[in-house]
Design brief:
The protein has about 170 residues and is α+β, with helices and mostly antiparallel strands. It is built from 6 helices and 5 strands. It has a 5-stranded antiparallel beta sheet with strand order 1-5-4-3-2. Strand 3 and strand 4 form a beta hairpin. It is elongated. The N and C termini lie far apart (about 95 Å).
């Protein structure tokens, strides 16, 4: 009798330990919401952003689509970005030198508020005349390319970014 009680205790302890292990490992998706709760074959199709763009804009979008969404990742080749974004300009010098000059020039422009800056990414998050956008500095063969990028990662072509780039070009370009 004593051996059977001991065996039952060991067995019940093993069942309890297994249940606790399964309950704490996250094997059950409690709280999965939205499309993630659906079976994989029922989930909506995820289309890459560059496939949703009309044919004429595909090159420009492909070069700059990763600028905000994945800045920590390796950026597109600088020469491709410079060719795709005609709203910017090139300044002779290294990326680091030009980044510092752009920061000084941004501080001297009236109405510009620098929300943050990331030297490794070569970007300033700025607000100017009611628009929020990034001023990017990218190394190219001829020096550093300065451009404006909107929150979607596309070239910023609104009036405020264009005006600010014009002022920066006047202060920085030789």
């Amino acid at each position: 009798m004593r051996q059977s009680v001991s065996a039952i205790r060991v067995l019940s302890f093993a069942i309890l330990a297994t249940a606790t292990l399964i309950g704490t490992t996250g094997c059950f998706k409690r709280g999965a919401k939205g499309d993630y709760a659906l079976a994989p074959d029922v989930r909506p199709l995820e289309v890459p952003p560059d496939l949703n763009v009309p044919a004429g804009q595909a090159a420009a979008t492909a070069a700059t689509s990763s600028s905000l969404a994945s800045q920590a990742a390796r950026p597109a080749p600088a020469s491709t970005q410079a060719a795709a974004n005609n709203a910017g300009f090139t300044v002779p010098g290294t990326k680091e030198e030009v980044f510092a000059k752009v920061g000084t020039a941004l501080e001297s422009v009236e109405g510009v508020k620098i929300a943050s800056k990331a030297q490794l990414l070569g970007s300033y998050d700025v607000a100017f005349e009611g628009s929020d956008f990034l001023v990017r500095v990218v190394a190219v063969d001829a020096g550093a390319y300065v451009s404006a990028v909107d929150p979607r990662g596309l070239p910023a072509t609104a009036a405020a970014p264009t005006k600010l780039l014009g002022e920066l070009k006047a202060k920085l370009a030789p």
